[in-house]
Structure formats: C-alpha cells, structure tokens
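Model it.
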Amino acid sequence: MKKQLISSMTLVFALLVSNEVFAGFDEGKAAFMARDFATALKEFEPLAKSGDKQAQHILGMMYDEGQGVKQDYAKAAEWYKKAGNQGNQDSQYNLGVMYAQAQGVAKDDNESFKWFEKAAKQGHILSQFALGRLYT
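Modeled.
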C-alpha cells in the first residue's frame, strides 16, 4: 500500500511538472513569436538549463542574433552544442556553419564536417548541401 501511494504521488508530481514545463515552453514560444524576447528568455532559460533541447536551440538562436540578449556567438555555440548533442538538427547545422566561419568558436573544418554530417544523416537539407559543397 505504501509503495502504491508513493508511486501515485510520484506520477502526480511528474504530471504536474511536465504540464508546467509544457506551459513554460508554450509561453516562451508565444513571447518569442511576438518578439517579446525578455519574456521568452525568462521562459526558455530554465527549460534549457534543465536539458530541453528545443529551448537550448532557441537560446542559441537568441544569442546568435542578439534577440533580447547581447549578441554572443560563443554562448550561441554553447547552447547549440547542448541541443546538437541531443540530436537537434538545426543546432547541428548552425554549429557546422559556426565552425566553418570561426564564429564564436575556432575555425575547425573537421568539427564543421562532423556537425553537418550529424544533421545531414537526419535529413537536414541545408546540411546535406553544405556537405556536398565540402566535397567539391
């Protein structure tokens, strides 16, 4: 009985937390689309820090473009790398570009190739094109 109660409480807690996470993401997305970057940052940052790859990618974009934060390519690359390591193909592509252009990271053709290849294997068209250009 005690195990059932603990399991039930754990499930209820997990559902509550997941609903809050989804609510935070939806609020962040709505704020981002409305160009309210301060609110978007407030919503996405805790999600990104907790490992949400979409929030990590969006924070990468915000730092990359200077949306609601001071433009910082190094921070953008950090967030893209976190999301890319979890399989976010847009982050992987962006990292490929950053390594190719020495934007926030040291120029590294091998790293650039690696990130383009990861995204290309998932069907990311721009990464496939970038890989093709590297071979010509």
